[in-house]
Amino acid sequence: MNKVASVVxxxxxxxxxxxxxxxxxxxxxxxxxxxxxxxxxxxIAGLAHIMLPESSLSKQSDLNPYKYADTAINSLxxxxxxxxxxxxxxxxxIAGGAQMFPNQLSNEVMRIGPRNVDAVLTHLHEYxxxxxxxxxxxxxxxxxxxxxxxxxLKIRTVSKSEVVI
Length: 165
Description:
Elements: E1 7-10, E2 15-19, E3 23-29, E4 33-39, E5 44-50, H1 69-82, E6 91-96, H2 112-126, E7 131-136, E8 142-146, E9 153-157, E10 163-164
Parallel strand pairs: 1-3, 6-7
Antiparallel strand pairs: 2-5, 3-8, 4-5, 4-6, 8-9, 9-10
């Protein structure tokens, strides 16, 4: 019997996994960064919708680990490995990190998008996971859909045409 493919939706400050034939999607990527860690040979992928760069900046005692680059990437990697991905085969694609308040560029606190991108790249590098492709920055929001069978990341950017990386 053929398996019917579905689209797994990831919310803001959320993380989910998918195996082919399913795809995985998140929307509302403004300053947030969508991080996909995947093993193409085993057709497994995980997607984290990251809101902020570092959990150490949180004043909450009960923090959501999927909200921050440092804790979400750690969880994402561990979860895809637990589902059968092979560390040697892991790769990443990222999208988002827009500067949604362009008139606030001089204020470091308001540069959340660029800070998120930097934190994501730093943490992926620490784990030795290469970033194969990215679509980051700008001033527009994005929706992304990843297919773990092909490794294609479709990106719909507000006021632009869809691209595949």
